[in-house]
Design a protein that fits this description.
The complex is a heterodimer of chains A (about 350) and B (about 850). Chain A has about 350 residues and is mainly beta. Chain A is about 10% helix and about 35% strand. Chain B has a 4-stranded antiparallel beta sheet. In chain B, a hairpin with a 2-residue loop joins strand 2 and strand 3. Chain B is elongated and about 105 Å long. The chains are: A mainly beta (about 350), B alpha+beta (about 850).
């Protein structure tokens, strides 16, 4: 779809700009080598993902901005980050150790609870890893695509990250990029051969429950692993729009995506049914809160909620006036939503019946 | 020495030696009729020119064209349509929203009519009805776009709905559509000249806009208009009121002069001569290709004021002489002899002081310098020559002359010295002089400390020239409230080689600068091709905000650039524009942005990518502020240098020069402090006021000092010399100081705030310069100047070389000092 868009945009306007195809970005301009600016208004920047590390919340967003709060999201301090690409995801398996990912295939690591970050790997290295993995697999098509990946340079973002503990984690993103580590990010392995994704769809979201992993992506792509990522199977719930969020408990799995589409499964993903959603607006994030409900955030800035089966969604709040990109929980039990203007604290209503 | 009690030797015309006096005096007074005829002819000729005098304003002339920022702007101007001088017409509805067919119809009429006004940059004009206002959006089918007014718009509910959806997808909310969607803007960029090559007529433009306003305003539609052109139009329109206040000031001045002289003839003569000077000055302007603007309209009044001061001096001298029984011609000649040089020097000081403003490379200030220098030069003819010549014909009323003499004789007798004279004389004594100097030093230090807070540029939102509750400023406030920051924009230009504006490398630099600027206080929003890349990156990826970055992919950037709206880059793709929307155009806000861009440019400019300041109203204002700030100090240094030089030439004594200049410096510093207290910033319109103040103040000092010095050189004590100076010129200094201050003080009630501010500042300077000349000058003289006592007795060093020849060995005045600048004597 994205390729289609590019073509139609080009047709619509006629390409008037000629520029060298070789996009050599000088070190001075390259956000991959420029530390994030310590910005007075960092806490009001475009924020994209949020995590909890013990009592602390850590949020990441545009221009390499990472901020952390020790008071449940009231006050934020900016962390020092060695890159200024947009950061898209953050995962803290412990209160001290965490990973953040972003554009240009950047993976950052923090061992001080998110106060400072170091780069572990970027898209240039990841592409090389995939090329050597492709070559040793002997799959010619894969080698060709991997070579393209190398020659494209680091232009593709990672979009999601999950770490089981301080050693084991996985990062995934645009055009089917997916890499895992078993040693806390010292070395990475390409998982691209484990996934059935011939069209190179974007991998938008991941959900892990024990050994079961769901990966949701572009154009209805849904993958499930039941062996903790050693292998994946393709599922077809029956929708071909893009998924942006996936969440699961013991048997309940809920997918959410384009134009407010929500699918729910009550048998661990074997069968699916479409849920009832009051607003046809793309859902970008879904999170399970302690009372068992699922809270959803959409592009119109609305919050929706459902019971943990994800069957019936209802509007939880009026729009805050700008898209909400992801959801997390704060120390005091407040919902923390990342938005185009920093992290927003949204007190969680308790009026819905609790079914835990 | 009792010169004034001495019977003048030549009372009658018959006894007068026509060959006496300087060559100038002989040339003028021996051909009085020729002089009159000449002046009459000139007055008629120049008077006939008055009809051609233009009053206009020009945006281009208000900006420092030689500043590199403006150079950058001007050389890229054709690519930066709409970033210069523009008018915004806000058409607001009191209905629910702008999506009503009635509203849109009115808007269409206004948009169409504005399109036809001469001087409008039609290609860059923008409203909901212009085809340049487009929307774009992502649908399942791909990227779509088009004009916001849907094709086949028919005012139906369906069409209005489509329009609303288009507007919401157009990125124009906060730009040409208000955030509450209850008003929209007709954005009207202006050209410097109309198609026929004439300069844009602001007054006519403002009138057309007002006609639009009255034509389309109704109980449903209200119209708000802002922009430089409107400010100028309002100022020009307010001219009538400005002129009324001038007239009031002239009447007050005349009445006060009359109440002093009680002679209607001579009072009228002084007023008429000063007005003739104004006629000459204004008549010369069209001949020399100048026009008045809303700021230089004050100059003719200043010329009048300076003329009154000099005229009154001449008249007073002649009146005293006639009172002593001299024939009026003789009186006129003696007065001319006595005061011509002092007057000439004072006027030259003024003229040079004003001419120094030429160093400021802003066109309006340069023409202000020329206009005021012309005016002052004209005064040399009208008030130093024509006035005494006319007086020599007309004379003064007998009673007034006797009255003036009676006062003088009484004063000479000793006991009936006016109390004020006795008081002022105290300042020639040690303790009072020390006190005056100490107070002045304290004021100087205090004033200096306060003046450090003097701000450059505008300190208030809207147009500070107009009152805060004026129609214009209410309109400007409406715009700010409903549209956010969009009216104060600073544009950074990014120059690249042709077809390379969209290189990823360049965009990433642009993106970096944009982020740095957006972190500054006062920056409300930014827009650029980099920002568009971020936004479209999200849109092209199904609205997933995680794609909010400038992708390091030339193909992607090319695609986005191809669909970018007009204004972010130019047709040849060698210029990018970064728009920085500011909360206001106060000097502090601008300085921060400019400094940040400069720092960034130093770090990031290369052969192929150059970040350049500045376009947009705030960019131009920033450049103007920089020039004004530098000019403010430079100008004072030059004005004082010029005035000091002329004083040195006149007095031939650095000590006397110091006595004359220090009071002026105190006034200048206190005037700056006053500007701080009143919240007036230094800007193009207020920059010249302090230089003008120095020019006016130096008159007083020169008149008082020239008499004082002459008396001292004749061996009088400081006290006696000062009393003599007070009698001859001091009372006129007092008179003019009060009358002019009183006259301009009425401007406080002017509806034009600029005039009110000028009224306060000028009144302050008229008064304080007077106080300085009458209090601080003698006090300083006490410490610096010494009487030329007999050399045997005096240990003091004799001051100056002038008049030395006039002193006999016994130290008594032995011979007339014939030089007119110093001679108080009438021959012995």
């Amino acid at each position: 779809m994205k390729r289609l868009l590019l073509v139609s945009a080009a047709l619509l306007y006629g390409l008037g700009v000629a520029a060298d195809d070789a996009s050599v970005v000088s070190p001075k301009a390259n956000p991959l080598s420029t530390p994030s600016l310590q910005a007075p208004l960092a806490a009001q920047a475009v924020m994209l993902s949020i995590a909890q590390a013990g009592a602390r919340n850590i949020a990441v967003g545009e221009r390499g901005i990472a901020v952390y709060s020790d008071d449940g999201g009231k006050n934020w301090q900016q962390a020092s980050v060695p890159v200024s690409v947009t950061l898209t995801g953050v995962s803290f398996p412990s209160s001290e150790s965490g990973w953040a990912i972003g554009h240009a295939g950047v993976v950052l690591h923090s061992i001080d609870g998110g106060r400072s970050w170091l780069k572990q790997i970027d898209g240039v290295e990841l592409a090389k890893l995939e090329l050597s993995a492709a070559q040793s697999s002997g799959d010619e098509r894969r080698v060709r695509l991997a070579k393209q990946l190398v020659s494209d340079g680091p232009d593709k973002p990672l979009l999601a990250v999950h770490f089981w503990d301080e050693h084991r984690g996985v990062v995934l993103g645009a055009y089917g990029l997916i890499f895992g580590t078993e040693d806390g990010g010292k070395s990475w392995t390409s998982w691209m051969g484990r996934l059935e994704n011939p069209m190179g769809m974007h991998l938008n979201a991941i959900s892990v429950n024990g050994n079961r992993i769901f990966i949701a992506g572009e154009q209805g792509l849904l993958l499930r692993s039941t062996d903790s990522g050693a292998s994946f199977e393709l599922l077809e719930p029956g929708y071909n729009g893009s998924w942006f969020a996936v969440t699961q408990s013991a048997e309940h799995v809920v997918l959410a995506g384009l134009r407010g589409t929500v699918y729910a499964s009550t048998d661990g993903g074997d069968s699916w049914s479409e849920s009832v959603v009051p607003a046809p607006v793309t859902i970008l994030s879904a999170v399970r809160v302690p009372d068992g409900r699922i809270i959803y955030a959409n592009q119109a800035g609305q919050l929706l909620s459902s019971q943990n089966d994800g069957k019936h969604l209802q509007l939880e709040t009026r729009s805050i006036g700008m898209p909400l990109s992801s959801l997390g929980l704060g120390q005091g039990g407040d919902l923390l939503a990342t938005s185009f203007s920093g992290v927003v604290r949204l007190p969680l209503s308790r009026q819905s019946s609790v079914n835990q | 020495m009792h010169i004034t009690t001495q019977q003048p030797p030549v009372a009658s015309l018959a006894d007068f030696d026509r060959r006496s006096g300087s060559i100038v005096e002989r040339a003028l007074f021996n051909h009085r009729r020729a002089v009159l005829l000449f002046c009459l002819v000139v007055t008629l000729l120049l008077g006939a020119q008055l009809g051609r005098l233009q009053l206009n304003a020009s945006f281009e002339r208000m900006i420092p064209v030689e500043h590199p920022y403006i150079g950058n702007y001007l050389s890229n101007r054709s690519e930066l349509a709409g970033l210069g001088n523009a008018v915004r017409i806000v058409v607001a509805t009191n209905g629910a929203s702008i999506y009503e067919s009635d509203y849109l119809q009115v808007l269409q009429h206004i948009s169409d009519e504005v399109f036809l006004i001469p001087g409008v940059d039609r290609a860059a004009m923008k409203s909901l009805w212009t085809p340049t206002t487009r929307w774009s959006g992502v649908t399942e089918e791909g990227l779509e776009g088009g004009p916001v007014i849907p094709e086949g718009y028919d005012g139906s509910a369906e069409a209005l709905k489509t329009l609303q959806r288009n507007v919401e997808r157009s990125n124009e909310i906060g730009q040409i559509v208000a955030r509450d969607q209850r008003s929209s803007i007709v954005y009207v960029p202006l050209l410097a000249s109309t198609p026929d090559g004439k300069a844009l007529n602001y007054s006519a433009l403002a009138q057309e806009l007002e006609q639009l306003r009255s034509k389309y305003s109704s109980d449903k539609i209200s119209i708000h208009i802002t922009g430089f052109a409107k400010v100028m139009g309002d100022l020009i329109e307010g001219l009538q009121q400005i002129l009324i206040f001038f007239a009031i000031a002239i009447v007050i001045t005349s009445v006060m002069l009359f109440s002093f002289t009680r002679c209607i003839r001579s009072t009228l003569l002084v007023v008429v001569c000063s007005l003739i000077a104004v006629v000459w000055q204004l008549g010369l302007l069209p001949l020399l290709g100048y026009e008045l603007d809303p700021y230089s309209v004050l100059v003719p009044f200043l010329v009048f004021a300076i003329g009154m001061s000099h005229g009154a001096q001449k008249m007073n001298g002649i009146m005293q002489d006639i009172g002593r029984g001299m024939h009026r011609v003789v009186a006129a000649r003696f007065t001319f002899r006595r005061l011509f040089m002092a007057g000439l020097m004072a006027l030259l000081c003024d003229a040079v002081g004003f001419a120094v403003l030429m160093i400021i490379k802003i066109d309006v200030i340069q023409s202000l310098a020329v206009i005021s220098s012309i005016g002052v030069a004209v005064l040399i003819f009208t008030n130093l020559i024509l006035l005494p010549v006319l007086l020599s014909f007309i004379g003064v009323s007998e009673r007034a002359a006797r009255r003036s003499l009676k006062e003088e004789l009484a004063e000479e007798a000793g006991e009936s010295q006016p109390k004020l004279w006795i008081f002022l004389d105290l300042f020639t004594r040690r303790s009072w002089a020390a006190g005056a100097v100490a107070v002045s030093v304290a004021l100087l230090i205090g004033g200096f400390l306060v003046s450090q807070h003097l701000k450059i540029g505008d300190l208030d939102p809207g147009a500070p020239e107009l009152r805060q509750d004026s129609r214009y400023n209410r309109d400007a406030a409406y715009l700010t409230e409903h549209y956010g920051a969009s009216s104060d924009v600073l544009a950074v230009m990014v120059k690249t080689p042709e077809n390379s504006c969209a290189r990823v490398d360049t965009l990433m630099k642009l993106d970096k600068l944009e982020w740095r600027l957006s972190q500054l206080p006062g920056v409300e929003a930014t827009n650029s091709l980099a920002r568009l890349n971020r936004a479209v990156g999200v849109a092209l990826n199904e609205g997933n905000p995680k794609w909010y970055d400038v992708l390091n992919s030339q193909n992607m950037v090319n695609t986005i650039t191809a669909g970018a709206p007009r204004g972010l880059y130019n047709d040849t793709c060698n210029l990018l524009t970064l728009y920085v929307y500011l909360s206001d155009h106060k000097a502090d806000t601008l300085t921060q942005v400019v400094d940040e861009v400069e720092r960034f440019a130093v770090e990031n400019n290369t052969q192929s990518v150059q970040f350049m300041l500045a376009a947009g109203n705030a960019g131009i204002e920033a450049a103007t502020n920089i020039v004004v700030k530098q000019a403010n100090r430079e100008m004072l240094i030059w004005v004082y240098a010029a005035v000091m030089l002329l004083c040195l030439i006149t007095f031939r004594s650095w000590r006397a020069t110091l006595c004359a200049i220090v009071p002026l410096i105190v006034t200048s510093v206190l005037c700056e402090a006053l500007m701080v207290a009143l919240g007036i910033g230094v800007k193009v319109s207020t920059l010249p006021v302090i230089a003008l103040g120095v020019g006016i103040g130096v008159d007083y000092a020169l008149y008082v000092m020239s008499i004082l010095l002459a008396q001292l050189r004749q061996g009088e004590s400081l006290s006696r010399a000062y009393l003599q100076a007070l009698r001859f010129t001091g009372k006129i200094v007092l008179l003019t100081g009060f009358t002019l201050a009183f006259g301009v003080a009425t401007w406080v009630f002017s509806p034009i705030k600029y005039q009110a501010d000028m009224g306060i500042l000028l009144a302050f300077m008229f008064l304080w310069n007077m106080v300085g000349a009458l209090v601080l000058l003698p006090a300083l003289a006490h410490f610096l100047l010494f009487s030329s006592k007999p050399r045997a007795q005096a240990e003091q060093v004799y001051v100056g070389s002038f008049g030395e020849a006039a002193l006999g060995a016994d130290g008594k005045q032995s011979k007339a000092v014939s030089d007119c600048s110093s001679s108080i004597n009438y021959g012995t």
